[in-house]
Design a protein that fits this description.
With 321 residues, the protein is of the alpha+beta class. Among the domains are: 101 residues, Nuclear Transport Factor 2, Chain: A, CATH 3.10.450.540; 112 residues, Nuclear Transport Factor 2, Chain: A, CATH 3.10.450.540. The chain is built from 5 helices and 9 strands, in the order ααααβββββαββββ. Strands 1, 2, 3, 4 and 5 form a 5-stranded antiparallel beta sheet that branches. It has a 4-stranded antiparallel beta sheet with strand order 6-7-8-9, with helices on one face. A hairpin with a 4-residue loop joins strand 3 and strand 4. The radius of gyration is 49 Å and the shape is flat.
Length: 321
């Protein structure tokens, strides 16, 4: 009978629990993570972390590499400075032109020109005897095309006419060679001077400088020991050699009322000086052979009481209108 009672208790319907006595113990709830469920949560966290890392690296690495490394399709950096031997090429072209324009002895000319041209091409430079002559040769420009090629312009009086000979030169880095036939071209035209720009003048400063500057030029040529008296303290001006010229007279262009730097105490005055040239004949009683007219740009400084010379140089645009 006891066994039967226990069996009946084991198969009791859950609804009978409601009729259980108040003091009966309540059934336990299963613990969180029971049966290995907490491992499932940990696995999900790790999976999401892995996905985030993969996605982040997939986006960041290309961006970072784009900042730090040049792309495969990027244009290579171009070095604007061309390493071409301009000075040797100019000397090479000048020596070539001196021989090329001398046709007085055609056979000797070709023998010399063979050192300038590729092997077997010297015959291309053959010219009739006395067909060309060149004088007063000088290099005027070197037009560099790339690291291996340039065209050197040589100015010359060709058959008594001003021309220029353009000489193509090739460099392999160690030596030079003519890369083609030279070309005779007309000489550049003479430039035309523009009108002298107008400016406000300072008559009072001009009156003061008319008294000071002649004494400066006398000391500049005749008495170097007195030169410091007229030179600004701290400035240095080298006098002319003794007995080279003798001061004659000075004429002024108007003194500007302001300097180019905006400092009213500093002016640049264009002057014309007439020098007397000493005689080269010791027995000549006159002591002079002529006069030399020259233009100077004199920088002067006003200290409040006196004008001093700071610098002296050749004057640009001194011909005027």
């Amino acid at each position: 009978m006891a066994k039967t009672a226990r069996r009946d208790t084991a198969v009791r319907d859950p609804e009978d629990d409601a009729e259980r006595e108040p003091d009966a113990p309540r059934p336990r709830k299963p613990r969180a993570g029971a049966g290995g469920r907490w491992w499932v949560g940990v696995g999900r966290v790790l999976l999401w972390a892995f996905i985030i890392v993969v996605v982040f690296n997939g986006i960041w690495f290309p961006i970072r590499n784009g900042f730090s490394l040049p792309g495969t399709g990027a244009e290579p950096e171009v070095n604007e400075s061309v390493d071409f031997p301009e000075a040797p090429a100019a000397a090479f072209a000048l020596r070539f032109a001196e021989t090329y324009l001398d046709t007085s002895d055609p056979e000797a000319r070709l023998d010399t020109l063979a050192a300038f041209v590729p092997e077997g091409r010297v015959g291309d430079l053959n010219l009739p005897a006395d067909s060309l002559s060149g004088e007063n040769l000088t290099v005027t420009s070197v037009d560099v095309r790339d690291e291996h090629n340039a065209v050197v312009a040589v100015r010359a009086d060709v058959n008594d006419e001003a021309m220029r000979l353009e000489v193509p030169v090739y460099s392999d880095g160690a030596s030079l060679v003519l890369s083609g036939l030279p070309a005779l071209l007309g000489a550049p035209r003479q430039a035309e001077l523009p009108a002298v720009p107008s400016y406000d003048t300072d008559p009072r400063a001009a009156e003061q400088l008319e008294k000071e500057l002649p004494n400066f030029f006398k000391a500049y040529s005749d008495d170097a020991e007195l030169l410091d008296r007229f030179v600004e303290p701290g400035a240095t001006i080298t006098p002319l050699p003794a007995n080279s010229v003798e001061f004659g007279e000075l004429s002024f262009m108007p003194v500007p009322s302001k300097s180019s730097t905006g400092d009213d105490d500093v002016r640049q005055v264009a002057t014309t000086v007439v020098w007397n040239l000493p005689s080269t004949d010791a027995g000549d009683g006159a002591g002079e052979t002529g006069q030399l007219v020259q233009n100077y740009l004199v920088t002067v400084v006003n200290t409040g009481n006196e004008w001093y010379v700071r610098d002296i140089q050749g004057a640009p645009h001194s011909f005027g209108d």
